[in-house]
Design goal:
The protein is α+β, with helices and mostly antiparallel strands. It has 1 helix and 5 strands, in the order ββαβββ.
């Protein structure tokens, strides 16, 4: 899979994703030694489509990582596509 691959989100599944409903999901980005928490917005998820019944926060984190970051073999890290730093992970609260 590459970062440009899209996922298909079934309309009936939108209300079951915890990050889109009750919980807040944040991605953790490391930039120049500082960790930043960035809220995941519906705009970030606009072109993501998923056909699955059992998507949890960690699965959604992997999908967001594939969309927003690219793996660098030289650095052994996921670099954000927009140059904002390195993708470190997600936090669901």
């Amino acid at each position: 899979m590459n970062a440009r691959q899209s996922f298909i989100l079934a309309p009936w599944l939108v209300n079951t994703l915890p990050s889109l409903r009750k919980e807040n999901m944040k991605i953790i980005i490391q930039d120049d030694g500082v960790f930043k928490l960035v809220d995941v917005t519906k705009k970030m998820l606009a072109d993501i489509k998923i056909f699955a019944n059992d998507v949890d926060c960690f699965d959604l984190c992997d999908i967001i990582r594939l969309k927003l970051a690219t793996y660098s073999d030289n650095l052994n890290q996921y670099c954000m596509n927009d140059g904002s730093g390195y993708f470190y992970g997600c936090m669901c609260i």
